[in-house]
Each structure stands twice: as C-alpha cells, then as structure tokens.
Specification:
single chain; about 230 residues; mainly alpha; about 0% strand
C-alpha cells in the first residue's frame, strides 16, 4: 500500500531527488514523533522507563532501533520507520526499473526478497524478516507494479476511504501502545472499547500533527518584518 500510494503521487507530480527525500521525511517524522510522544507518555503512566540509555533514546527518536538489533526499543511499532525510510531511499531506483521493464523488475525483486529471507536470520537479530529492507522490497514494489500496469477503475474514493487512509499511519503506530486496555477491559466490551480509544487517539494525533504542520509552514512562508 505504501508503494502504491507513493508511486501514484509521484506519477502525478514528479519531484527532484532532494525534494523527494525532504518531502518523505516531512511526511513520516512529524507523525511518528507525535505517536511516539503518546506511546512514551503511556509508558510513563504505567511506571515503565522511557529509555534505558542515550543510545536507545537516539535510536528510538530516529526510528532505527531495529537496525541495532532492538526492534522498536520501548516503542514496539517504531521498527517500521527505519524500514519504510530505507525503502523510500530505494524508491527512485525501483521506479526507474519498473518504468523500463515492470514484470522483469518484479521477478528480480522476488528472487532478492526470497533469498534475503533465507539468509538474514544468520546475520541479524531482532526479527530481521520484518525490518530488513531487502526482505520487504518485493511487497513494497508490488504497489509500483500495480500502478505501472494500470490500476482498474479511476472513480474518486468515498470520503470514508480517504478518512481511513489519513489515519492508517497513526493507527498502526499507536494501536500497540493501547493494548493494555484490551487486556484489562471487561469481556465482551474489551474489543469495542479498545477499537474506539485507538481510533479516537489516531484521529486526535492526526489532527494535531496536521495543524502543527500547517502552522510551521505558514511561519516559514510569512514575510519577514521590515
């Protein structure tokens, strides 16, 4: 899904490599840091330590804990940040290859992905099948392939689909932080209570992140006082 959405957006307006990377960082990190703040606050309220060391703090804030063999450190879903940013780094090369020969590129990436899955556990710790970029490059590139082959349809998406798309990233990042509600709420209400709280938290974080971005952008564009 990440590859599909990215390739669609780039097909509509192509960016220079530097602009592309800056845009991706601007899209990923503010939302990640907002979700991280919520997750670490919940940790503190449960009297859990936020960070074990300065190294762990730096790795957690950057989202690259998995590359040090610690998966997500104290923010379990943080491993996804290092993975998706690595795949974004590969995207210009993948997009170029897909445009030249989509089917052949996808076949090569399948071989690379399967080969990586067979060997990485001998060299890395901390569930490398999840976070090692070459293990997931085939899945990421399926979205690119679908765009290159022409997505069926073309009608505009319903509003509820756009809404779910907007909150999917914070929802993914936050859902594990609220797992304690699922385990401690009364049966059978634990599932609806958990879902309602996670969705509301995701909507709130998404709204705050959007407003902060808008504020920062407006400040950047505001004329300097004479």
């Amino acid at each position: 899904v990440s590859g599909l959405g990215l390739h669609l957006s780039q097909a509509r307006r192509s960016l220079a490599p530097l602009q592309f990377y800056v845009q991706r960082l601007w899209r990923i990190y503010p939302m990640y840091w907002a979700a991280l703040t919520v997750g670490l606050t919940l940790h503190q309220l449960r009297h859990d330590a936020a960070f074990g060391s300065w190294n762990e703090a730096i790795l957690t804030v950057s989202g690259f804990c998995a590359f040090a063999g610690r998966l997500g450190c104290n923010f379990p879903l943080g491993w996804f940040i290092g993975l998706i940013l690595s795949l974004y780094c590969l995207y210009p090369l993948l997009a170029w290859a897909m445009r030249r020969h989509a089917t052949g590129t996808l076949c090569v990436l399948l071989i690379i992905s399967v080969s990586s899955r067979l060997i990485v556990e001998h060299f890395f710790t901390g569930y490398p099948l999840e976070w090692f970029p070459l293990c997931r490059v085939f899945e990421f590139s399926l979205g690119l392939y679908w765009v290159e082959r022409g997505i069926p349809g073309g009608a505009s998406s319903p509003r509820w689909v756009a809404f779910l798309s907007d909150i999917s990233f914070p929802l993914y990042l936050l859902h594990y932080s609220f797992a304690f509600i699922f385990w401690h709420a009364s049966y059978p209400w634990h599932i609806p209570i958990y879902l309602a709280i996670v969705i509301l938290a995701s909507v709130a974080v998404s709204a705050v992140e959007e407003r902060v971005k808008a504020f920062l952008t407006s400040r950047k564009r505001a004329p300097l006082p004479s």
